[in-house]
Amino acid sequence: MTVFAVTLAWPFGSDPETEIVPTAAVQTVPRRATLSCPVASITDGDTLRCRDGTRIRLHAVAARETDETCSLGHPCPEATSTAATRELRRLAAGRTLQCEPTGRSYDRITAICWTPQGIEINCAMVRSGTTLVWARFDRQAPLCRA
After folding, report:
1. pLDDT tens-digit map of 83-103
2. Between 20 and 30 A from 24 (CA), which of 1, 68, 128, 141?
């Protein structure tokens, strides 16, 4: 009689720092990521706040506004604002992100950000289906640069 044993890794609990991440999704954080952001709060589906008060808007990512509208001239995803906010919270809340600033938008820094595990937040938001790539800005600094 032959017996096989299988060991599975299962992410018990909800500690974002120890979450198991598929190997294919892991990237290295580029050296251009010069801004460290311990995330204090998630504002909406494309904006977060660091503990020092810095507001970061995800570069080249378009999410619905909190009132579920889309601004004129902006890409408009089908997903709700609530879904996008929930996804950004899942990816970033409680983590210290490393971000590459790309510019400014009102009183926010626009940036591409990575988790400690090397996941590009901007790309993950688009791949989740809760946001869209804003092509005009993606041409300036492309997302999903594995």
Report:
1. 999 999 999 999 999 999 999
2. 141
